[in-house]
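TICKET #2291
ISSUE: user wants both folds in one file
ATTACHMENT 1:
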Amino acid sequence: MADIPQHIAIIMDGNGRWAQEKGLRRIVGHREGIKRVKEIVRVAAGLGIKVVTFFAFSTENWVRPKKEIDMLMRSLSHFLDREIKELDKNNIKFMAIGRDEPIPKYIQDKIRQAENKTKDNSGLIVVLALNYGARQELVDAAKKFAASVIKDEANLEDLDIQSFSRYLYTAGLPDPDLLIRTSGEMRLSNFLLWQLSYAELYFPKKYWPDFKIQDLEMAIRVYQKRQRRFGAVLSK
């Protein structure tokens, strides 16, 4: 494919509803959703995409039933145990963005280990947004910058869009070109609000467990047909 988006961000919506509509437990939907993550990662690497960011767990998701949260944490733990070796084998770099607390300590440790194991890989970057909220990210970035000014490591007058981006969780990564949110919901839900300023948005109606390789390819084709002007007027 030509004109491949360099960074795709994905809100994996609809796992629970997919399961409930089939008369299954919500947990089954989350497990099926993990399979889609592995498929998308494999295909994205082959297409030449540079970064894929998955919105796995928001700062607001802690209000869900404890049983469901515990299952999600166990599933994440198993993913880190089983899949990181495969990612490393395929030259894929793993990153997590978001706040550490109150993620269980054993999960935090596995995340750091996975990041360290793959930090020198030069292929696709897989980013997991975990315990992530964009408003919190902006507050944390502002605090980091203020601390730098207090330490005389930065000047207030020098702050601009580019320099502020270096204080975000996503520092060093390109902004997403394409956002995909499954399930037909058309909201950003506090996800990458700064970074998605100029992204193309795509809202397929399928639930995430039904979002297959051909659906990713369709999303990319839709992206390729759009004109990204960034405020300018394209010449005819």
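ATTACHMENT 2:
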Amino acid sequence: MLTRVEPGSWRVVILTAVPEVAEMTATTLRRLGHDPVAAIGANRAKPTPGLTSLIQNSSVPGTEVLIASSKSEVEPLLQSMRPDLVLSWAFPWRVSPEALAIPRFGAINYHPSLLPRHRGANPVAWTIRMGDSHYGVTWHRMDPGFDTGAILGQRSSPVLEEDTIYDVVPRLNVLALRMLRPVLARIADGDPGDPQPNEGATDAPPFGEDYATIDWSMPARYIHTQVRAWAFTPGTHSVVGPVAELGGEPVRVVRSSLDPPDPAQSHGVQRVDCGDGPLWVLETESLV
């Protein structure tokens, strides 16, 4: 049973594997009057010194950095920090029910889709793959499911043809940080959030072999979308894509265009005739 929270500063623990997220989230929490006491990173087979160095040298002193080397370490680390709230953003592991029960006011997660659409690790890429008109930003309460908790806030941003991941991620980050004040206000009011509907729920796992190879007989728009979608993957998948044969050798297609490039910028560009017309391949990486 959730109850209204008395005003005051909360001890917040941030779960993230991304140093920049730790810094900007801690900065925002401090501006909102709360105390980001720790950032817990995930050491997935590689050391993550960037998380430690960024926090230690950033404008948010006083935030302790802890690195969990396995999922089982998250619960005792949270116990040691006695958080009022846990905030998860770009954390690669599902958090156990026992760990979620530790913070007094619960745990919340940032997810870059309009939940319940695109639950999973690859939501922005699936937004492109499925031809959605808008990207999404959702803050939701965490429960034992995968991105299934009650919604505390949502915003959207139009999908633009010229978007790259370097445009979209900062744009969604700004939306998410601006939403924190009203999201935390709902928590303070004891608001459980809005249950996610079953209708419209989809999964967004990493892309697999079924989407990794380009078939030049497909329509140009389909192939262009395939290239763009792969450019929005988070880089944690084991499958390489999209791959194709060009000039007699296997390549990964990095960028493409449905329109011919300016002649002054056409060096290295390859025109390919697809099932219904041409596609211009702007950048590739050799797989040889």
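RESOLUTION: both attachments delivered.
EXTRA DETAIL ON ATTACHMENT 2: The domain at 209-286 is CATH 3.10.25.10 (Methionyl-tRNA Fmet Formyltransferase; Chain A, domain 2).
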